[in-house]
Design goal:
alpha/beta; 5-stranded parallel beta sheet; 3 domains; 10 helices; Methyltransferase, Cobalt-precorrin-4 Transmethylase, Domain 2; Cobalt-precorrin-4 Transmethylase, domain 1
């Protein structure tokens, strides 16, 4: 294979967002290795973790520690490096920077100052877990839960009303605290709990949330959990709510019957056929 990147000066200068393996080091891309080798500096969370990756692929680029406690303090220094025409890569300990990891502060400042931000595709626990779930491909990514119990309850109550798959990150210390709330607000859904993705002891636990049990021992490693879309009994006729009827009335001026049916069915328990027939009825009355 011949690389399309031949010389360092052919690369656009700026900030490269480089995903790194979430477990198996073999998951790094050829392009990611090339960019890291040709960078002037690499921003990383923990230099001890990143050095293992760099040594594996014989990358000798200088590291700059850049974690959530010092990324704001680092801002001026890094921006000056970028303005000086240097090529800088941003990595996290694992996965894609900026996705529940440091990065947003610097990226936003680069955007404001018209500094190139070039993202690379690569490893992500979110898409890896969703692809294995078998649930609806429409999903919402939340990330980590807040610390305060009151906020956790509020968030889960709000999200339980949406008819999408939900993706959460949970630390092993919190999973048993969260499970009772999942059983309360998502009781008619399914769940996939992903542990140690792409590592030797990776594990995928599938269950109906109603049957979910507490872990007897604290699991090792961060958990990615996927909650399925709402399980709707198609044989049970559900009436269209008054608020949905009002929404349909408004949308009929701009959207087709099919488009309205799909939108309303996405969050309503009413069958598509009933929504469609209601749209036709309204159109005929006008």
């Amino acid at each position: 294979m011949v690389s399309t990147i031949l010389h360092k000066n052919e690369l656009r200068k700026g900030l490269y967002i480089v995903p790194t393996p979430i477990g198996n080091l073999g998951d790094i891309t050829i392009r990611a290795i090339e960019i890291l080798k040709k960078s002037d500096f690499i921003l990383c969370e923990d230099t001890r973790v990143s050095k293992k990756l760099l040594e594996k692929f014989e990358i000798k680029t200088s590291l700059i520690s850049n974690h959530k406690f010092n990324e704001t303090k680092n801002l001026t220094k890094v921006l000056n490096i970028l303005k000086d025409g240097k090529l800088v890569s941003l990595i996290s300990d694992a996965g894609t920077p900026g996705i529940s990891d440091p990065g947003a502060v610097l990226i936003n400042e680069c955007v404001k100052q018209n500094i190139n931000v070039i993202p690379l595709p690569g490893p992500s626990a979110v898409t890896t877990a969703v692809s294995a779930s078998g649930f609806n491909e429409k999903y919402l990514f939340y990330g980590f839960f807040p610390e305060k119990e009151k906020l956790i309850v509020e968030e889960l109550e709000n999200y339980s009303n949406l008819n999408f798959c939900m993706v959460f990150f949970i630390s092993p210390k919190k999973i048993n605290k969260i499970i009772p709330y999942l059983k309360t607000y998502f009781k008619n859904r399914k769940i996939l709990i992903c542990r140690e993705i792409s590592k030797y002891y990776e594990e995928y636990l599938r269950s109906d949330i109603a049957n979910l049990k507490l872990f007897e021992n604290e699991p090792k490693g961060e958990l990615t959990i996927i909650i399925s879309e709402k399980q709707i009994n198609k044989n049970t006729s559900q009436k269209i709510s008054e608020s949905d009827k009002n929404s349909i009335n408004i949308m009929l001026k701009k959207l087709s019957t099919k488009e309205i049916t799909n939108i309303i069915a996405n969050y309503s328990n009413a069958p598509k056929k009933e929504i469609y027939e209601y749209c036709i009825k309204l159109k005929n009355e006008k």
